[in-house]
Amino acid sequence: MMKALLCKDFGPVENLVWEDIPDPTPKDGEVVVDIKVAALNFPDNLIVQGLYQFKPNFPFSPGSEGAGVISAIGKNVHNFQIGEKVSFMCGWGAFAEKLAINHKQLIKMTEGMTFELASATQIAYGTSYHALIQRGRLNQDHEILILGCSGGVGLAALDIAKAHNVRVVAGVSTEEKADLCKQYGADEVVVYGSDKLDKESQKDLSNKLKEKSKKGAFDIIYDTVGDCYTEPALRSINWKGRYLVIGFAAGEIPKIPLNLALLKGCEIVGVFWGAFTGHEPKQNMNNIIEIGKMISSKKLNPFISKKLPMKSATDAIKMIGERKVLGKVILINE
Ligand SMILES: NC(=O)c1ccc[n+]([C@@H]2O[C@H](COP(=O)([O-])OP(=O)(O)OC[C@H]3O[C@@H](n4cnc5c(N)ncnc54)[C@H](OP(=O)(O)O)[C@@H]3O)[C@@H](O)[C@H]2O)c1
To answer: Tell me, what's the pLDDT at 137?
Structure first.
């Protein structure tokens, strides 16, 4: 038997239970991974409430990425061995002691990589690297605004941008989050608060953002929050800037007057990292290798703010809804 965090019906996060279930056995093409570490991500809070695009059969475990050791191998798996260290992305199932997973979803861990870093950097750094490098076409002369900068993907974007020596303005909801971003390398911060912004407050925010930019406008805007923050941010974009649509953590998917794109000559660029990994696996693998190298050489320095035992995954998921996640939160099987 093994333990797993189980969602038995869509509902509040408090309904999740940490229970014994039978060990998984690998089907054709699968391996079983003994999970050492799993990382928390924004969709973990949505999927258990039935608010996410994927709705797994019950019971299921949330948790979309992790790292561990292969303990069993099914038929037709030739390139992995028992005892090998791997990281994986799975959509759901990582908040457990073991997971049966297709071998195509595994990445071999390189020498020197830890379970903690391997699990914490796949989605956050994978997304932010793809967003800034391929979709944003980042260059050294750029100035960037990152909204939701202290969260998982936001802080990864800050780390990657600073590794490329560009000026970054961080947008966050609280002073505590602003302090973290400054310590982490942000050149300037703007605190936009946690309340919904009316038209007047949106104008104020737009002016504040422009004031914090050295050029008076941003070449790239990396938006993880959406809602009432998007339009004021878009109004602060530079001529021919690129607005990277990453997520809508603040709730609403904003409806933007398209004349803003015309007036600014700017690009509004969608970023969907999960789909990118399927459509462009080679480019994704190149990105993963580059991120790994940059972490090993300390050009990138992922920030893990909290380490909790796996059985406390419910507490970790609650932090997302309470807007309390800083950098990456990881869950450890002790
Ligand atoms: N497009 C893609 O391929 C892709 C890939 C990964 C993630 N994402 C998306 O990126 C966003 C951030 O993901 P993450 O894993 O970095 O999450 P996270 O670590 O929980 O960070 C979320 C950030 O959103 C901000 N936020 C604003 N309103 C919020 C609210 N009502 N509740 C919670 N947070 C709120 C928070 O910053 P402030 O309090 O400072 O506003 C927080 O730092 C999510 O929307 C996620 O779905 C997209």
So the answer is: 98
